[in-house]
Amino acid sequence: MPSLFKRSHLHDEEDQDNDIDDDLRLRTVRTAHSTLAESIRTENRRTARRRKTRKWHAKGLFKSKAAAAEPPPPDHDLPQPTEPQGASSLKQLKPGRRRNIYVNCPLPPDERRPNGDPIVTYYRNKVKTTKYSIITFLPKNLYEQFRRVANMFFLILVIIQVWPIFGAAAPQVAMLPLVVIVGATAVKDGVEDYRRAQLDDEVNNSAATKLGGWRNVNQLSDPRMWFEKLLGIGERPDKVSKGVRKLREKEASEGKNFVLVKEGMSANDQPIPNNDSASEPGAIGRPRSLEDIQSVASRSSHDHSYPPAAYDSLGTSASAIQAAGSLEQPNYNQTFASSTSSWAMSNRTGVSAGVVDWQKRTSGTAHWERTLWKKLGVGDIVLLRDNDQIPADIVVLSTSDADGLCYVETKNLDGETNLKPRRSLKATSSITSDEDLEHASFVLDSEPPHANLYTYSGVLRYRVRNTDGDESGSDSGRDKVEPVTINELLLRGCAVRNTQWIIGLVVFTGQDTKIMLNGGDTPSKRSKIEKETNFNVITNFILLVVMTIVTGIVNGYYNGKAGTSRQVYEKDAGVTDSDALNAVVTAVSCLIAFQNIVPIALYISIEIVKTIQAYFINQDVDMYYEPYDTCCVPKTWNISDDLGQIEYIFSDKTGTLTQNIMEFQKCSINGVIYGEGVTEAMRGQAKREGRTDILSPVEQAKQLEQLKETMIQKMSRTFKNRYLRPERLTLISPQLADDLADRSKPQRGNIISFFRALSVCHSVLPDKPEPQEKPFTVDYKAESPDEAALVAAARDVGFPFVHRNNAAIDIEVMGQAERYIPLKVLEFNSTRKRMSVVVRNPEGKIVLYCKGADSVIYARLAADHDQELKAATSRDMEKFANGGLRTLCIAYRYLTEQEYFDWSRQYDAAAAAVADRDEEIEKASELVEHSLYILGATALEDKLQEGVPEAIDLLHKAGIKLWILTGDKLQTAIEIGFSCNLLKNDMEIMILSADSMDAARAQVEAGINKIASILGPPTRDELARQELNVPANTKRSFAVVIDGDTLRYALDPTLKEMFLNLGTQCDTVVCCRVSPAQKALTVKLVKEGRNAMTLSIGDGANDVAMIQEANIGCGLIGLEGSQAAMSADYAFGQFRFLTKLLLVHGRWSYQRVADMHGNFFYKNVIWTFAMFWYLFWNSFDATYLYQYTFIILFNLAFTALPVIVMGAFDQDINAKASLAYPQLYKRGILGLEYTKTMFWLYMFDGFYQSAVVFFIPFAVWSSGYVMSWNGRTLDSLADFGTTASVAAIWTANLYVGLNTSYWTWIMWFVTIGSNIFLIIWIALYSSFESIDFIDEFQNLMGTVDFWAMVFLCITVAIAPRFILKFAQQAYIPLDKHIVREMWVMGDLKDRLGIGHRKVHSENRSFFTRSRNTSENDVELDNRGPYRQTERTSPSDIPENSQRGVHTPPEMRLNDSTGPLHVTSSNHPSSGPSGLHPNRMSYYSPSDIPSPDPTGSRSQTSSLHVRDDTAHSRASDRTFVTANEWEDEHYDPDRR
């Protein structure tokens, strides 16, 4: 098909590929392996183009056209890079001045005020996530509430009723509803915000340690406002605040102190001996290194002493405490003073190093002091210890590691638990004490704050004193600079791990920190229905205005008419002498009388209903997560109905879909596959292909446990593995144990070489949690969980990695100790896609081990490599990748001494290069990473959270599209996409990766062209598709995978509409390497561009922006909590709970609120218009038809409860049925339950019924006298008005009951009780003396005419609605009506495994008849392309239900119009009710034979029967076709 978009494409020689359509210029792939391979090829092409461009720029051959044509990015542009880059390549990411931070340097004149304070001020470190403050709460909350048109209208009415001229009976009473509504809403909002404030206070008042006793010139000497200084209030800088004083008193009373010592150096500057030699083979005395630090879990959060000694609760050495003595009267300025000053004075060499100048004179007053997070400011120097939370964005100056390394955990930031390495600046790495800091002098030139988590650019400037006898003077020296990148920056929200101490400089505080910039302000969210209600309220308001204008005009006409009885009986009754003014007063009085047509009570009722709904969501045991002891926590109650209308879900990956736990499942060694595990992707593929060779998860687990025991027994007979962790063994393969034990075969040597490479080629740190009690229990800490999983698997198979230092790597090989000498480590990065180590093995040979992506390794294999092994390993890796596993290829080569010596010099020179360092290192690496020989391949599974694939499948069936927005690299996201069945092998997957705007545009256009060439242009009109000769049954699904750089271009205003068009035509979109700001912009693009309801879900602080941007934000609760959960509208424990939240609670809430809105408008119309009809018989003078108390109590007592109970408790479909038929959710996506048409239908019902309840009594009263039982004539206005009011109120309550699907005892009680309460009120109120209502109960209630009129009104009023509902559900039912009938009258409960309340006779339902398999059933079964989902045994039903995992029955709907069919086929040998003889009498949801209401209807004579192929059983709003319902079916023999 020719391209729909004619544009010139950029042709690169790398893009010339015969497999790419010349018209489309975009490759699509299907399998996981081909997708991964294509992503690597795409990235390699981009890298090559970038290098070539840089070379041309360096040579000055040309200037980039893009750079010349494109203006600088505007202020709102996204951060340019999406991953760490060199300082030279960074652009200014946010407008603003670069900030200079001065340490022990005077401010230059142009940056200081006359009093010496800095001109530039910075945010405090105090953060606020609340919407309100004490000052802003009242005005801001009132503004938000009076955005509602109804609230503003009733405020005006309350003001009008203050003047008696308008005839308001009790203006004080009239204002009560508005006061109650506004007050209750304000209290709810205040409570929600107060909870946020409590969390803020907890964070802001956390303890921190900073350097005190020195002048931070970057802060104001007195930060108080001028009026605070004038009045002497506020916190004076020379006084300690109350919070800090309490903290210091508490900690000083415990005598806490600490000493800072570099790892490997004692106080006497002597190496610390190794104490682990007994347990570590070959270990020798050495300096302490990072792996000696005990693990995080071994002690409390501060359990470290420097140097190690007896520990107290804060890690203070006993000797240090004893030396410090007891502090009976703590000095608040000296508390936590370091004892290193005296040590430094006596042991320092006096030689300056880096920024430290020992010839500089200092006051000697600097000391460490405890303070609060909120007291920190830019330029403060802080001390962090192991497990401390990082209070601000901090540049690392020095660490406890001799090499300046430190490790942080970013779990609270991005959900990842693996450790991230950071490094101190070289110029400041010698700092170890407060005195060192006093002698340090430098300036940090920092970029402005911005939201990109992956980039930072700064420069450290300092002067080094001349030591070569320069005669230029004592102040002479050399100016030096050192770049500062993201690798030297610690971000707020992270935690220090495996590092004893860190000294850092605060650069960004409070709102300037990256975590806060990505969060944004807490939004005020309003539900979609609430916004649409404003239209309905305005409509009713216009109707009210019309009524009042008509009343005023007609009343003025009658007032001015001469010769009427008014001139006799109502003389001087007017307010003024002017008929026109009297007409205006009458119109305003009518406005007050008819005010109920604008339902102010609706809002307070909605608040009550949504509070009850929030309580039910919170109490749902299916969403309770026992490991965290948490349930679903609704934090924003007023948007629960939006849960039933979600069309797009935007999800993070790490920690949201996955557990961030890697398991070594399979491997290929010398062409032989080992490993028996089955992944979720394999299971999902088997389901789609209809294969029955995959065991159920329970059976699979039992089988793997047996195989594991067998494997361990075999290995234990072969060798002794002291480090084995049986509970963590994931590579289960008895065959592997057999091959290791068989010394006669060469495969044993191949296996040993393979696992030896895994034990050596890594950057993992070993950790012994309990070195004394359990010396052979080793865990591994790694930057990547992949590496930790590989090394752990080698440990459990018999090749444990034991110990590492700069001089040796100690491992064991089947019980025998081996030591390797590390020579070089070539680190992994996203460009190289490989890692290598060069070591000297125990035989003295130099070996290079390399592991990486298969395409990268295969490109570097030796020319004489065994071709058969290459092909076999490639096939195995392709199989692994298609199974959702993450593959790595392992290879090696030997180096000669001379070759290594020559290469080492080149590599060292490249590592020391100042310009283009990364490129030089890459070139040097290429010189040695070649001529490799394959050892094998590994396959890791990134463990998904429980139930994720099933949940995603269920959401897709519900019509919800899922977009993955992750900061992970492209390949990782693709692998997870296949693992969780988000990406499937039958999808056309398009990878978008561009490095320019034009390239991005070309690829997006190509993607649209690709879809158009298969499905036709994007249109909902099927006729247009037929005109293009596109087959109607064409079913192709598409997915887009796009990286962060390309997404930046795609979100550009000139391209975002086209990208939105592409993304919304795809079933799945995966965005990789995206920043938090890009996540939020992507959500905003879909939300506003398609006017779609969106939901975002994540678990880290980097997800907060998109959580707040979406209509609904969901956060996952972790063991330590998360900022995502705190900022979310709903917080719960696992991703799978989203299905119950949306498909059950969300659908119910939407249905309830929609019905409640319609019924509320209806009942107010029937009440108000009955009064309006009376105006025609009272000269339109606004006389009340009803007694005034009826008007007050109508919405308050008489009709309030039934509609509230409907909104809180109604269920059209049972929860399990809703999950079994997720397609029912589509009505919410399309917004079919709350439309303007339905609104006008309810309004028309109100018009009609108001006429009924007025004119029937009026006709009776007009036909003659009506006599009471006591002989009194019923001819007063009170008699007529009471009759009409009772008829209207009873009709309204019964009408609400008629629209209720689920009659609980509560509904019975409130419906009957409200009607009875009306009669009781009449009896009580009429018993008191009054002018017009005395003895009304006695006169009316004993009269047959009264009751006859009431029941006649009810019957005539409700009959049309009843007939319409019957006709619709019997002849043109919606999906929910059919499923409801299956539930109530059919055997759906049996198939869902739910017991019946009563056992009816055999004629209970036409669904319970035993049905044998017919030819038609078999034919329908055979043509369904979808196969049965995973089976679970009947005994698993309660467990699955409690976990919130529900697999739907085999029923499928789509959004096209057509008849609804559910087919079922039973095995010929099945017994009654279609049960297999070997099965129990109930099923899990996945075992349900799909019900067949169409076929069953033919068995019932009371229902209309017709040909299904000729006539639709569904209305035009029932988006279901017969073919789709027949797609999935039940076959009891297929397992």
List its salient traits.
single chain, 1535 residues, ten-stranded mixed beta sheet, nine-stranded antiparallel beta sheet, globular, disordered N terminus
Q: What's this, in brief?
A:
By secondary structure, the chain is an alpha+beta fold. The longest helix has 38 residues, at 1137-1174.
SSE map:
Blueprint: E1 28-29, H1 32-59, H2 65-69, E2 99-103, H3 137-145, H4 149-160, H5 171-174, H6 176-204, E3 207-212, H7 226-231, H8 242-253, H9 318-324, H10 340-347, E4 367-372, E5 381-385, E6 393-399, E7 405-409, H11 411-414, E8 419-423, H12 434-439, E9 442-446, E10 458-465, E11 477-484, E12 489-490, E13 495-497, E14 501-508, H13 514-517, H14 528-560, H15 566-569, H16 579-593, H17 601-619, E15 633-634, E16 648-651, E17 658-669, E18 672-674, H18 680-689, H19 697-718, H20 734-741, H21 747-760, E19 765-767, E20 779-781, H22 785-797, E21 801-804, E22 809-813, E23 816-826, E24 834-840, E25 846-852, H23 854-858, H24 867-882, E26 886-895, H25 897-911, H26 917-926, E27 933-944, H27 948-957, E28 961-965, H28 970-979, E29 987-992, H29 997-1015, H30 1022-1027, E30 1037-1043, H31 1044-1050, H32 1056-1064, E31 1068-1072, H33 1076-1089, E32 1094-1098, H34 1104-1109, E33 1112-1116, H35 1123-1127, E34 1130-1132, H36 1137-1174, H37 1188-1198, H38 1200-1209, H39 1215-1220, H40 1226-1229, H41 1236-1263, H42 1277-1298, H43 1305-1325, H44 1336-1341, H45 1344-1371, H46 1375-1384, ...
Parallel strand pairs: 16-28, 16-32, 28-31, 29-30, 30-31, 32-33, 33-34
Antiparallel strand pairs: 1-29, 2-9, 3-4, 3-5, 5-14, 6-12, 6-14, 7-8, 7-13, 9-10, 10-11, 15-34, 17-18, 17-27, 19-20, 21-22, 22-23, 23-24, 24-25, 25-26, 26-27
Helix pairs in contact: 1-24, 1-28, 3-6, 6-17, 14-16, 17-36, 17-38, 19-20, 20-21, 21-22, 25-26, 27-36, 29-31, 29-32, 36-38, 36-41, 36-42, 38-43, 41-42, 41-45, 42-43, 42-45
